Amino acid sequence: MIEEYYKTINLTVGDPMEKPQRIKFNRFIFERCFHPQMKKCEESGRVITLTEKDKKHLEDFATKKAAAKTKEWKGFDNQMRAKREMTGASIEYAVLKFYGKQDKFDDSIVDKSSKKNYPDLVPLGVLADVKGSSINNVPLVFKKTRPYVVPTGKHKGKEFKCVNIIGITDHEKVWLLGIASQAVLEKYSDTNLIMIAENTTKTGFYGALKLLELPKTWIEFKKLCLEKSTPV
Hints:
Elements: H1 2-8, H2 19-44, E1 47-49, H3 52-72, H4 78-98, E2 128-134, E3 140-142, E4 148-149, E5 159-161, E6 163-169, E7 173-180, H5 182-187, E8 189-190, E9 202-205, H6 218-228, E10 230-231
Helix pairs in contact: 3-4
């Protein structure tokens, strides 16, 4: 699919695209790869509806987090930052709500982001990060996932590259698309899917059709994330 698309615009896979080309490429991939996976979520009950109470909680958190990051890093557009924080928080919250664990959502605010420089679900004993995007936009993931040293428990001291839980939201609902292993994250990514600007650490993810479905129980979820995370 990717090779064929590049041929239609007379480029070789990986050749840099201009912004208008990136936007069209992003839309093409979302329609072909993400919409079918969203349909599967609807059929299997992996769509989480955010209540008004949920949204108010997440909006307050996103606003406070954006304000904290604006103080830490000058020059950010606070309004756009708040929207991005809302997107990320909504997907993480929805993963927890899927398993009845929404009360475990970490809404604390820190003055330095380095204090929370670990995969999102690790504090809950799950070797997984959460990534996603607003609807009709391809999610961004790290080009190279940094290994994480497990601080406590059975795997204390061991290093892992964690799986990513991929979701899509319109801020009313969240489609929990599935679990991406490190191999899938690396294989199904393209920097031309970043629409607005170059990003030295992120790349666009298009492997929605290669994701593992979220298990039904929290225990199975933790086990699968451990099995699919990559030991270093």
